[in-house]
Structure formats: C-alpha cells, structure tokens
Design goal:
Number of strands: 0
Strand content: under 5%
Shape: flat
Helix content: 55-70%
Radius of gyration: 22 Å
Largest sheet: none
Order of helices and strands: HHH
Structural class: mainly alpha
Number of domains: 2
Length: 101
C-alpha cells in the first residue's frame, strides 16, 4: 500500500454524513477511504479537462479559433440528434423520438 499522509480539512456536514452513509452501506472501508476516492476522481477529472484544453488549443492552432457561431451550430445539431431516454421531449424533438429496445 502506498504511503499515506495525514490531512486536516474543513468539510460541509452533509458531505461528512454522505461519507458515513457510504461506509455504513459498505461502499467504502472508511470515511478516509471515501474522501481519498473522491480526491482521486477529481484529480482524474482535472487531467481529462487539461487534455481537452490541450486538444482544443492544438486544433485552433491548426484550423483557427472556433467561433461562437460554430459552437451554437454544434450545440443545435447535438440537441437535434439527441436520444430522449426519459422525460418529455422538447417541442422541437417531439414526434422524432427514437425508442431504445
């Protein structure tokens, strides 16, 4: 097992209760293990975001800056091609829903 270091932090009471509930439900060995997992997941998320920033910067260096119009057009295309899994479809997609088998 990797060497651990002690850390003192201030945490919202609701998060402490959530960690304790996770331990009681058997989802974590201890609150410390639960917090350690949360920090590891956050660190992984930060690495993914940094990789995405790098990829966008590389793309824009080659193809030019992505314009607000291009972002809007892509968001619109994403909404139009989205698959509604639950809930009500918007007025623009109603009648075009696909069912999941």
């Amino acid at each position: 097992m990797a060497r651990r270091e002690k850390l003192t932090v201030t945490v919202d009471p609701a998060l402490i209760r959530a960690g304790q509930a996770a331990v009681a439900a058997g989802h974590a060995e201890s609150v410390s293990a639960w917090v350690n997992l949360a920090l590891a997941e956050r660190a992984a998320k930060e690495r993914r975001l940094e990789a995405m920033r790098d990829a966008i910067a590389a793309y824009e260096a080659e193809a030019g800056e992505i314009s607000p119009e291009e972002l809007s057009a892509q968001a619109r295309a994403d909404r139009e091609s989205a698959l509604v899994i639950r809930g009500r479809a918007s007025a623009t997609t109603r009648g075009r829903r696909r069912r999941i088998a």
